[in-house]
Amino acid sequence: MTDVRPYLEKFWSESYDCWALVRDFYLQEFGVKLPVVMVDATNPREVLREFEYTPIRASFDVIEEPQEGCVVEMGTQGRPHHVGVWIDGRVLHNHYRGGVVLEPRPQFDILAYYALRNPPTLAV
What we know:
Helices cover 22% and strands 31% of the residues. With 124 residues, it is α+β, with helices and mostly antiparallel strands.
């Protein structure tokens, strides 16, 4: 089981948004450095554009069922605008209103699950 306590002590900021949490998690848990995404996380149009056109998607495969440590894409009305990580049947994510939380049912719709191609195994 992944110890999420260190993540839960972190708060959302312009330099530590939802993608920064995913990057932090992948570095700490997998030793994988994911690229920085330069986007104003408070600007919905900019975030939607980044989700649509980011080349980072090529590093991930869409999967039907969530797997431990996979990236969870969330949004509203079918439009992605938020990401988190699937941990123990819940979503670890960083929201600007509340910081990092681990929720069984996030306030956003889950749109897709993504597995990193050729990742190291997450210790369970």
